[in-house]
Amino acid sequence: MDSSTTGKIIGVNGNMLIVEFESAVAQNEVGYAKIGDVGLMAEVVRIRGRLADMQVYEDTTGLRVGADVEFTGDMLSAELGPGLLTQVYDGLQNPLPQLAEQCGFFLQRGTYLPAIDREARWDFTPSATEGDTVTAGDVLGSVPEGIFDHTIMVPFAMNGTYTVESIANAGSYIVEDVIATVKDSQGRSHDIRMLQRWPVKLPVTAYAERLRPTTPLVTKGRIVDTFFPVAKGGTYCIPGPFGAGKTVLQQLTSRNADVDIVVVAACGERAGEVVETLREFPELTDPRTGKSLMDRTVIICNTSSMPVAAREASVYTAVTIASYYRQMGLDVLLLADSTSRWAQALRETSGRLEEIPGEEAFPAYLESVIAGFYERGGVVKLNNGETGSITIGGTVSPAGGNFDEPVTQATLKVVGAFHGLSRARSDARRYPAIDPLDSWSKYGSIVDEEQLTLARRILREGSDVGQMMKVVGEEGTSDSDFILYLKSEYLDSVYLQQNAFDAVDGATSDERQRHVFEVISEILKASMGFKDKDSARRFFHEITQTTKDWNRVDMDEKEFTTIQTKLESMVSEVTKNA
Amino acid sequence: MHKTYHRVERIAGSVITIRAKDVKYRELAEVTSRYGSSLAQAIRLDEDEVSLQVFAGARGVATDAKVRFLGETMRVPFSDALLGRVFTGGAQPRDNGPALDENPVEIGGPSVNPAKRIIPRNMVRTGIPMIDIFNTLVESQKLPVFARAGEPYNPLLARIALQAEVDVIVLGGMGLKHDDYLIFRDTLEESGALSRTVMFVHTAADPVVECLLVPDISLAVAEQFAIAGKRVLVLLTDMTNFADAMKEIAITMEQIPSNRGYPGDLYSQLAARYEKAVDFDTAGSITILAATTMPGDDVTHPVPDNTGYITEGQFYLRDGRIEPFGSLSRLKQQVNGKTRDDHRAIMDIMVQLYSGYRESLEKQSMGFRMSEWDNKLLKYGERFEKEMMDLSVNIPLEGALDLGWEILADCFEPVETGIKSTLIDKYWPGNKDETEADTVTEPETEEAVPA
Ligand SMILES: Nc1ncnc2c1ncn2[C@@H]1O[C@H](COP(=O)(O)OP(=O)(O)OP(=O)(O)O)[C@@H](O)[C@H]1O
Ligand SMILES: [Mg+2]
Questions:
Q1: Helices B343-365 and B397-411, interaxial angle, to 10°?
Q2: Which of A20, A271, A472, B279 could covalently link to B285 via disulfide, CB atoms 3.0 to 4.6 Å apart?
Q3: What is the pLDDT of residue B430?
Q4: Range list of H helices, A390-491
Q5: Structural domain span for residue A324
Q6: A117 Rama sector, left if φ>0, alpha if ψ -120 to 50, beta otherwise
Q7: What pLDDT, on a 0 to 100 scale, did the predictor assign at position B441?
C-alpha cells in the first residue's frame, strides 16, 4: 500500500471527520489530521466513494476544513516485545509515566511516544538454528523479562513458511536490533527484530489449535471458585449497579488470581481507581513469586475523561498484549472495567455516523462486536505443543442496574460464567455481592459436585423460606423450614461472604476451599434438633462466629485444627437431639 | 483580520448555519443582530457550512445577522481578581463589577495524566456528623447530593462550603432559582467567605446554552487555582439541569437519543466534568460537590444513574436529612483510620443499631409486640435522628464521636454494642468497670488497604 496517501478534511462533527482522499485507503487505516505541526491520530471507520469517515482519538478543537490528513498505510497496531510488563499505557499504548515526564500534569494531544523502550538492552539466548523451518509464532530464542523467560517469536504477521538463514549469537541487544534473518519460499530475506507490531483489532491466530477451557482458574474468592468458577481460557462477566463492588472484585482478582500475567484494562472508569492500582501494586508481593505484583501486570488505562475513541481501542490494545504473552505459553488474565463504557464509545461513533440505531441507540452490530471480543479469550495449543490461555473477565455497568439491557444481554450470550452483583446484597454489605441464586457458570468447580448440589439446594430453599417468613412470620414457619433457612444464612455468612480486608479470609486457596467446603457440607447435611427456634438461632449464631474465626486462621497453624474440632463437636451436640 | 459574514442559511433551536471558510472547529464567533449580540461556537463543519451554537439562543437572530469569527476558542479570564465576584454562565459580570479580560485560559481542557495523580489522603471537615463520622468527605473527592426537588440541597452545599477548610470556593449554578442564588451569596457574605469565592451563575431565566458552559468555566478556574497550590472546593448545582440542557440541545441537533431523550454520550459528558476532581502530585486539589435532583425521586433515572457510575459515592438527602443507608463516601477508608481510634467502631455500630431501630419501627407499625430490645432501639433511634442526623447539628468530629458514646451509653449496655473491649474501656462514659471483656466480640471494621 502506498504509505504517502494524503487527504483533506471536508467536515468535522465532534470527534468524527469526513476526509476526501486521493489514492487508496483501507478500512481501519490510521491517519494523522493536522493542526499546524501537530498530527492527531484518527482511524478510518467508513468509506463512501472518495470520502472516508475517520474517528479521531483526540479532542478535535481547532481542526479546519481543508487541513491535511496523512495516512499511514497501517491499521492501529500495538507494539509487542520485551518490556511490556509493569507498564502503564493509555488506550493507544502511550506510556503514561513517560508522557507525564514530557508534558506535565495534563495529557497533551498529538504527543505519541514509543510503547517499548528503544534503548533498553535485553540478554538474548538463541534457540533456533540456521536451516530451521519456521512459521509465525515459532520460537527463535528468549530474553529474561523480570520473572519470565520472554520468548522471541517469528512475528505473527509473517504469513507462510520460512527458513532461518542466520540467528544472532547470545548477547545483549536492543529491541530494534536484527536477531534473525529468514528466507521465504521465494528466496527473499526478511530481518526479524525483537519488536513486532500487530493490528489490535485482528485476533492473533499463530497457534496449532484451540482447546476447551477445563482447568479452573483459582481466584481465591470462595463464591467464585466453588460456586461460579472460571476456567483458564474461559470468559466471564460481572454486571452490577453502581457501587455494588465490580471494581473491588476485579482488583482482588488481579491480586490473587493464579495466573502468570494480568492485563488490567481500565476502560472509561475513574482515574482514581487506576491510581490505587498504580501506586499499590509495586508495594505488594505476589505470593506465587515473592516478587512485586507489578512484575506480572500491564495496565491499560483510558479513563472516563480521556478521549472516547481511544477508549474503544483500549480493550483491543489490552487483548493484543494478552495474546502476545499467551503465545509464549503463559496463562494470561485480562480484566476489563467496564465493557459498557466501551459499548457506549461504539454508540457514540455510530451516532455520529448516523447509522440506524438499535435498542437504546446502540448500533445493530453491538452483539457481534462483543462476541468477537470475548472470542479472543481461549486456551490454545501452540505450534510447539505447549498451551497458553487468555481468560477474559469484563464488568458491565447496566443503566439503572437493570440487566435487561443490550450490553448485559449481548455479553451473557457469549460468556462462560456470569457473576451478577445485586444491589440488595451490597446494601446489606454481603460482599462480594455476587447473587448466589442468579449467577451461573458453565465451567467445572474445584469442589465435589455432590456437595455443591446440596449447597445450592439449601441456598435456594432457604431463600424461599426467608421470603415466606416475611409474610407469615417465624410463628407460621415449621421448625424444619426454619433450620433450613438458618443453614442457608450460615452458608452465606461463612462461605459466600468474604472479608476482603482480612489477610487470611480475603484469599482462600483451592486446597483450603475444598477442605472447608467439605466440613461445611457435613454441617449442612446434618439433621439437627432444637428445643425451640430461639435455641436454633442461638446455635447458628455461635457456629457462624466460630466458623468466621476459623476463616481468619492460617491453615498451617495449630489453631486451625483446634477450631475445626470445636466446630464439629458443637454440631454433633445438636445432631444427637435430632 | 477575521472574516465577517452577513447571511444566515438556517436557524433551528439555538443553532444557526452559515457559509464560511477557514473556520476552526469550536472557534468562537460574535453574532450580532437587531436585538443584541451574543457569542457563538462552531459545533459542526461541513464543507463550507458552519453550524454555530449561539450562547444567548437564536431567538431574534435575523437572516442578515452579522457573524464575526474571533479566531479563538472559549476562554475564561483567570486571576485573583475573580474572587468575590459573580459572573454569568458566559463569564460576563453579573454583579456591578468590571468585566475582566486578562490572562484568558482555555475551558474544557485536557484531562490530568493519571500518572500525576496521588491517592487522596486528607479529610474535609464539615461539622456535619452524618458526613464526618459516617461518610467522611475526602479532599479531591467527587460526590453528588441526590435529592428530590424541594429538599434543602443548596443550603447543605452552602454550609459545607463555609465549614470546609478550603482556600477557594467556586460555585457553578445551573438553572438556579434567583432566590437560591441570593441565599448562596448572602450566606457566604455573612460569614466572610465571599472574598474567597467566585460564582458562575446561570439562572432559570438565562439562555440554555450558558447553562452548558457553567461546569467547564467553573472547573477551568478551579484548575488554575489548584495548579497554583490552592485547595479548591467546587459546588455544582444542579447537574440535572446541566444534563437537561444537553438533552435539549441534542434534540434540536437531531441526535439520536439513547435513554429517555438523553444523548448517548451523557456518561462521557458528565465524567469529563467530574473527573476534573484531583489531588495533584505537587500542587493543590479540586474537590467537587454537586447537587443532582432526581426526577420522580427515582435513582435509576439516567442523570442520577450515570452520575452514580462516575462519582465516588453519593449522599442521599431525604426529608431534610442525610440518609445513612445508600449514602456512601467511597473514599472514607482513606482517612477514617487516621482520625481517632474509635471512629470506625462508632461508625459501624451506630449505623447497625440504627438499622435495627428501623426494623423495630416497622414491627411496631405492623402491630407486633415490642420486646425490651425493641424499646432500647426505639429510644436510641430517636436520639440518633435528633442529635446526629438533623442537619442543624454542627459539631466537630471529635465532639460528634463523644456524643455517639454518650447516646450509646444512655441506651445500651456496653456488651450489647459489640464494640471491642479496649475501646469500651477507653471511651464508655462513666462505668468502665462493668465491661465484660470475654463476652465482647470484635466488630468487623473496614480497613484502608486490603492485605
Ligand atoms: N468486597 C468488598 N468488601 C468491602 N467493601 C466493598 C467490597 N466491594 C465493594 N465494597 C464497597 O463498595 C464500594 C463500591 O465498590 P466498587 O467501586 O467496586 O463498585 P462498582 O460496582 O465498581 O461501582 P461503579 O459501577 O460505580 O464503578 C467500595 O468503595 C467499598 O466501599
Ligand atoms: Mg467500578
A1: 50
A2: B279
A3: 80
A4: 406-414, 423-427, 449-472, 479-491
A5: 210-441
A6: beta
A7: 44
B-chain CB neighbours of A407 within 8 Å are none
Phi and psi at residue A480, to the nearest 5°: -70, -40
Same domain flag for A336 and A434: yes
- Sheet containing A162-167: give its strands across: A133-134, A162-167, A178-183, A189-193
Q: Return the beta strands (E) in B59-218 as ranges.
A: 66-69, 75-77, 86-88, 104-106, 123-124, 137-138, 142-147, 168-176, 197-203
How far away, in angstroms, is A269 Cα from ligand 1 center? 13
Question: How many residues make up chain B in this entry?
Answer: 451
Q: How far apart are CA B175 and CA B169, in angstroms?
A: 19
Grid coordinates representing A407 are 450490553
Separation between Cα atoms, residue B248 and residue B118, nearest integer Å: 37
Q: How far apart are CA A294 and CA A313, in angstroms?
A: 23
Q: Is any Cβ of chain A less than 8 angstroms from the Cβ of B451?
A: yes
Phi, psi of A257 (to 5 degrees): -65, 140
Cβ A243 under 6 angstroms from ligand 1? yes
**Do A187 and A219 fall within a single domain?**
no
pLDDT digits (tens, 9 = 90+) for A189-212: 999 999 999 999 999 999 999 999
B97 shares its domain with B61 = no
Q: How many helices (H) and strands (E) does chain A have?
A: 14, 26
pLDDT over threshold 90, residue A376:
yes
B98 and B112 co-located in one domain: yes
Q: Are B188 and B215 found together in one domain?
A: yes
Q: Are A473 and A400 found together in one domain?
A: no
The ipTM assigned to this model is 0.92
Nearest to A399 among B22, B302, B310 (CB): B302
Place of cell 462550603: B161
Do the beta carbons of residue B412 and residue B376 sit within 8 Å? yes
Q: In terms of residues, how long is chain A? A: 578
Model pTM score? 0.93
Res. A218: pLDDT tops 90: yes
Q: Which domain holds residue B388?
A: 343-435
Tens digits of residue pLDDT in A412-457: 999 999 999 999 999 888 999 999 999 999 999 999 999 999 999 9
Query: Given the C-alpha cell 462505668, which residue does it identify?
Result: B431
Mutate to test the interface with A, among B19, B23, B43, B45 (most CBs of A within 10 A): B45
Of A276, A401, A545, the CB nearest to B300: A401
Is the four-CA dihedral A441, A446, A449, A451 of positive or negative sign?
negative
Please report which confidence band the pLDDT of residue B431 belongs to, taking 50, 70 and 90 as the band edges. Answer: low
Quick one: B34 exposed, middle or buried, by C-beta within 10 A (0-12, 13-18, 19+)?
Answer: exposed
C-alpha cell at A261: 500475567
Instruction: Give phi and psi for A363, each to the nearest 5.
Output: -70, 155
Structure-block grid coordinates of residue A476: 407460621
User: What are the residues whose beta carbons fall under 8 Å from the beta carbon of B129, sequence distance 6 or more?
Assistant: B388, B389, B393, B395, B397, B400, B403, B404
Q: Whose CA is nearest to atom 29 of ligand 1?
A: B330
Instruction: Put residue A16 in one of left, alpha, beta given phi > 0 → left and psi -120 to 50 → alpha.
Output: beta
Domains identified in chain A, total number:
4
* Closest C-alpha among A237, A243, A221 to residue A420: A237
C-beta atoms of B312 and A272 within 8 A = yes
**Cβ-defined contact of A10 to B451 (cutoff 8 Å):** no
Q: Which of A247, A426, A496 to mutate to test the pocket of ligand 1 (most atoms within 8 A of CB)?
A: A247
DSSP code per residue over B408-428: HHHH--HHHHT--HHHHHHHS
The torsion region of residue A176 among left (phi > 0), alpha (psi -120 to 50) and beta comes to: alpha
Handedness of CA A109, B225, B216, B330 (dihedral sign): positive
Q: Ligand 1 in contact with B35 (CB < 6 A)?
A: no
Measured distance CA(A462)–CA(A520) in Å, rounded: 16
Q: Please state the separation of Cα A60 from the chain's center in Å.
A: 31
